[in-house]
Specification:
Layout lengths: L6 H15 L3 H8 L15 H5 L4 H25 L5 H20 L12 H11 L1 H18 L2 H18 L4 H17 L1 H9 L9 H4 L22
Length: 234
C-alpha cells in the first residue's frame, strides 16, 4: 500500500499528525483560564481528568474536546489528501496520521515528551478514521463505567475492544493495526492504574475527597480542589 503513496504524502501525514497531536490543550486551557500550571496540579497529567481536579469543568470540557478533536483533524486532513484514491490507500494514510497524532499527545515535543494518557485522543482518531469502531469503543466505555464506576477500567476495556471490532466490521487492516497500536500504548500509560485496579484501590467515578487521597498518582490537592472524576485520564 505504501508504494501507492508519495513520500510527500507520508511525510506530511506523519509530521503534521504529530505536531497536531502535540498541542497540549489542557495546559493551554488552564493557563488561559487562570487555573495555573496543570503539570503542578494533582497527578500532573495534561488530560481532562486532571483539569477537572482544578474545579473548572468548563476547562475540562474544552480539554476533552481539544484532545479528541486534534486527533480527528489529523485523520480528516489525511483523508482529504487521498479522497480521490482507493479505500486502502486512504486507510493507510489516515492511520499514519492518526498514529502520529496519538504519539504527539503522549510524547509532545513542547512539553519535553511528557504528555497525556491518550484516551480522548484515541476516541477522536477512531471516530474520524472509522466512526462505527469509534462509536463501539465509546459505548463500551459508557457501559463499563456505568457497571463498575471506574473510569480507567472503562478506558482499558474500550481500547481493547476496538481492534477486534475493526476486524469484525471488515474495516481495512490498517485501521485495525492503528487501533491495536494505540491500545497497546494506552495500556503502557495506564500501568499505575492497572496496578491499583488489581489491588482494588483505584478511585471510582464520583469518589469523595477522602477516597481520592493518594490515588491520583500525585500529591493531594489543597482543600476545595477535589472534584468528582467523571472522565478517564486522557
Amino acid at each position: 500500500m505504501f508504494e501507492e503513496l508519495s513520500p510527500a504524502q507520508i511525510g506530511a501525514a506523519i509530521i503534521g499528525g504529530y505536531l497536531l497531536g502535540s498541542i497540549p490543550f489542557g495546559v493551554i486551557a488552564t493557563r488561559l483560564g487562570g487555573a495555573g500550571d496543570l503539570r503542578q496540579i494533582g497527578s500532573g497529567n495534561i488530560g481532562a481528568t486532571n483539569v477537572l481536579r482544578t474545579g473548572r469543568r468548563d476547562l475540562a470540557l474544552l480539554t476533552l474536546l481539544g484532545d479528541g478533536g486534534k486527533g480527528a483533524v489529523a485523520v480528516l486532513l489525511a483523508w482529504l489528501a487521498t479522497r480521490d484514491g482507493m479505500a486502502e490507500q486512504q486507510a493507510v494514510l489516515t492511520s499514519l496520521a492518526g498514529g502520529a497524532a496519538f504519539l504527539g499527545h503522549l510524547f509532545p515535543v513542547w512539553l519535553k515528551f511528557k504528555g497525556g494518557k491518550g484516551v480522548a485522543t484515541f476516541l477522536g482518531i477512531l471516530l474520524a478514521a472509522a466512526w462505527p469502531v469509534g462509536l463501539a469503543a465509546a459505548a463500551t466505555w459508557l457501559i463499563v463505567a456505568f457497571l463498575f464506576r471506574i473510569s480507567s477500567l472503562a478506558a482499558l476495556v474500550a481500547v481493547a475492544v476496538a481492534p477486534a471490532v475493526a476486524l469484525l466490521l471488515g474495516r481495512p487492516h490498517a485501521i485495525a493495526w492503528l487501533a491495536l497500536f494505540m491500545a497497546a500504548l494506552v495500556y503502557v500509560r495506564h500501568e499505575e492504574n492497572i496496578r491499583r485496579i488489581l489491588k482494588g484501590v483505584e478511585p471510582r467515578i464520583g469518589a469523595r475527597k477522602a477516597e481520592l487521597m493518594g490515588h491520583n498518582g500525585g500529591p493531594p490537592l489543597p482543600p476545595g480542589l477535589y472534584k468528582d472524576e467523571g472522565t478517564p485520564e486522557a
